Amino acid sequence: MKSHLAKLLFFLLAVPLVSTIAQTENTDAFANIVNPITIAETRSLHFGTMSVSTSAGTCILAPAGTRTKTGGVTLTNFTPSATSAAYSVTGAANVAYNISLPTSSVTVTRSGGSQTMTITAFTSNKAGDAGTLSSTGTDSFTVGATLNVGASQVAGLYQGNFNITVAYN
Length: 169
Description:
Strand content: 35-45%
Largest sheet: 8 strands, antiparallel
Order of helices and strands: HEEEEEEEEEEE
Number of strands: 11
Structural class: mainly beta
Shape: rod-shaped
């Protein structure tokens, strides 16, 4: 009987100790949804008007819209004039984003023909191809590139397209 009483006494003393070891905390959970980031082209990339000799060359269009040339390319002031591509970005206020430019060459083809040229070396006016949306959730940037013109390139309007992507950091 003494041993049963001792066991019961031990059990009754141990139960309050066990219940003070486990604790429960009610924890809050949150999720924050931001406006999706969007991009819109506000001006197309146009290398302007040029001529070429029997030597190949390039037309380098800076993001600021200025052109330089190499090789047999001669830049003219004829219309249409050169313009860097321009984009507007909208999204969450004060949030950083990255710009993904084409990393491989883009082919442009002569309207009504099969002749081609390539565009390479895309660059933006944003350092490190990164920007930050303003307190109103907007920003803008420009893009330039290099047009590779073949020797005696056939005259005409050449066109193609490429993708620019923006994403939150």
